[in-house]
Amino acid sequence: EVQLLESGGGLVQPGGSLRLSCAASGFTFSSYDMNWVRQAPGKGLERVSYIKSSGDSTKYADSVKGRFTISRDNSKNTLYLQMNSLRAEDTAVYYCAKVAYISGWSHFDHWGQGTLVTVSS
Amino acid sequence: EILLTQSPGTLSLSPGERATLSCRASQTVSSTYLAWYQQKPGQAPRLLIYGTSSRATGIPDRFSGSGSGTDFTLIISRLEPEDFAVYYCHQYAGSRSFGQGTKVEIK
Q: Which one, out of A50, B6, B87, B100, has a CA that is 20 to 30 A from the CA of B49?
């Protein structure tokens, strides 16, 4: 059974940093591209970052470019999101999401339960 | 970036009724790359439909998807109590985007 378990969320002051983790199990983690998707309170879904299965290609939403860094450790089956210079508008539940297919464009077939990040003084 | 606009914003229906949800894209989306997710309060999104019309594992056949080009539709043929939720469309051809969601609420 595929499981994605996020951790690392919490309350942080504006300008602060936080590192999110997503522990994966039940599939060959190193074969699948992964994503972080966030959802601000009462709002819709926004894909914030993507990383290729090998870790050598990444993408970011314009809203987080230059502040967030996605990475992965395939030996530990874990996905990360380093978030720096946090702003109030980064307040959201952050989900890790797995793509369905090893190659090509693919929908998300599994999501973690999410971790809440609150940026406030 | 392809913008997805969902309508209506809220759909008020009774159990047993038919729900028709729309997702319109700002430019053509290949039908291969359009999905629908269901989200209940406090839960992660759940995959319902991918490739416009393929149901995900375990999704009942009262859920169906259709469409092409810029217009896509999710139909719930007979609403069950557990179907009242928010539904998002998602295009994943290159740069991904989500619709803003349609809330299906109990009338």
A: A50
- Which residues is A68 bridged to in the sheet? A83
Question: Residue A36 in contact with residue A96, Cβ under 8 Å?
Answer: yes
Beta partners for residue B72, in sequence order: B23, B67
Q: Which helix (H) or strand (E) holds A45?
A: strand A45-51
The count of other CB atoms within 10 Å of the CB of residue A83 is 26
pLDDT of res. A104? 78
Q: Measured between beta carbons, which residues in chain A are less than 8 angstroms from residue B90? A: 45, 107-108
Residue A23: Cβ within 10 Å count: 16
* Chain-chain contact of A47 with B33 (C-beta, under 8 angstroms): no
